[in-house]
Automatic annotation (TrEMBL):
Gene assigned in the entry: BCAT1_2
Domain of life of the source: Eukaryota
Cofactor(s) listed: pyridoxal 5'-phosphate
One cellular-component annotation, GO: mitochondrion
Protein name per its UniProtKB record: Branched-chain-amino-acid aminotransferase
Organism this protein belongs to: Parelaphostrongylus tenuis
Length: 51
């Protein structure tokens, strides 16, 4: 994702910080996370340039 951001002239970001943010969002929305063993949670981060 960071390489794509550089190629698209979007701002760089800290990948470790992004991972922490994703984990926190999942934790805060735990009631929406599937609990069955055969289920999964699909996470698709996106980066949008607004400048």
């Amino acid at each position: 994702m960071r390489r794509t951001a550089v190629r698209a002239a979007l701002p760089d970001f800290d990948g470790d910080e992004l991972l922490k943010c994703i984990k926190e969002v999942v934790r805060l929305n735990q009631s929406w996370v599937p609990s069955k063993k055969e289920a999964s949670l699909y996470i698709r981060p996106s980066l949008i340039g607004t400048h």
